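BUG-382 | component: ligand-complex export | severity: low

The export step for nicotinamide-adenine-dinucleotide jobs runs without errors, but we want the raw record kept on the ticket for reference. Input record follows.
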Amino acid sequence: MANRIILNPVSFHGKGAINEIPGLAKARGFSHIFVCSDPDLIKFGVTAKVTSLLDEAKIPYTVYSGIKPNPTIENVKDGVAAFRACGADSIIAIGGGSSMDTAKAIGVIITNPEFEDVRSLEGVAPTKNHAVPTIAVPTTAGTAAEVTINYVITDVEKERKFVCVDEHDIPEVAVIDPDMMSSMPKGLTASTGMDALTHAIEGYTTKAAWEMTDMFHLEAIRLIAKHLRGAVQNIPEDREGMALAQYVAGMGFSNVGLGIAHSIAHTLGAHYDTPHGVACAMMLPIVMEYNEDYTGEKYREIARAMGVEGVDGMTQAEYRRAAVDAVKKLSADVGIPSVNEKVREEDLDQLAADAYADACRPGNPRDTNVEELKELYRKIMK
Ligand SMILES: NC(=O)c1ccc[n+]([C@@H]2O[C@H](COP(=O)([O-])OP(=O)(O)OC[C@H]3O[C@@H](n4cnc5c(N)ncnc54)[C@H](O)[C@@H]3O)[C@@H](O)[C@H]2O)c1
Ligand SMILES: [Fe+2]
């Protein structure tokens, strides 16, 4: 089968990029914009960095902010109703993965109303029409949801998160401005940055990886190793580096998939509301160790990209150890915990079954099973 690459038709990168937004909206004939954001971003004035530009340009918009972290089916349904009520013709998503994913689901349902139950969008949904024209503006660095063809929604009733993969959801325009990320507190910068590293490493080692996505993923690993510690200290140059790094990781993994660090992270988000990046960071070194015999020489390149010196003189066992240790060190340096106190032995049957059913699991380089997944959960239990 041929390899396929889907990316945003247009993206803008760098400090001040949001100033492009009014012109982009006007050029596309947006007459009323549905702004998707979350309550904290409104409170902290992050959303207003963009809406004030719309005010100045006199472009009408309605703000929808009924979005929680690990967004729910209800958040999507309420958003669809709000979109219809205000008569919008376009979307600007301003936020982290939660706001952008909710915006994607709303945009897809508006143009494909037969999927308005939301659950039927799970997996690769056979939608016919492209979503509502969308500009995505990330405020974390991050999920890269602005450049991926995926979104993740939580089914509260069934206590599970489900991944939707649909090329009709990719935003027409992505605007990646590090100034939108400068208000992130240290813990959020660290965890969302480790999510990006998990995308890069799982995307580099996933079964469908190929030369072009390897190029994106290795560069993303290199940039994250160089800039995440400084971004946590809010150094502007490192914020800029992380804004780019997470996007470059998204250019890769969106096209080839991930692995079971993400499958497990989705279950921790659904069952315990664990922030996605924290869950990814906890699982990444554990899953790297589990997968190492199925990755050929790839961990040498991961170690090199992480900044480890002398990798060419190392044995296979040495460079594999070095890659995992470098990831653990970065995670510890930025303050990510290595245990999740909420995970209980009695939950493991459900958690492992859900992780096995997750859309990211088949991409893992090592084929797994429910019993082995349970062992991986035990490694983060206190
Ligand atoms: N679509 C994809 O390809 C993809 C990939 C990975 C993860 N995800 C999903 O994305 C979600 C996680 O997204 P996230 O990690 O970006 O976090 P998030 O969107 O859930 O936001 C977490 C919290 O951080 C706050 N926040 C965000 N930006 C901020 C800023 N600049 N300043 C201050 N506070 C800020 C938000 O208000 C929120 O309270 C999960 O549901 C995850 O499953 C999607
Ligand atoms: Fe992720």
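Assignee comment: Attached the raw record above. The domain at 186-378 is CATH 1.20.1090.10 (Dehydroquinate synthase-like, alpha domain).
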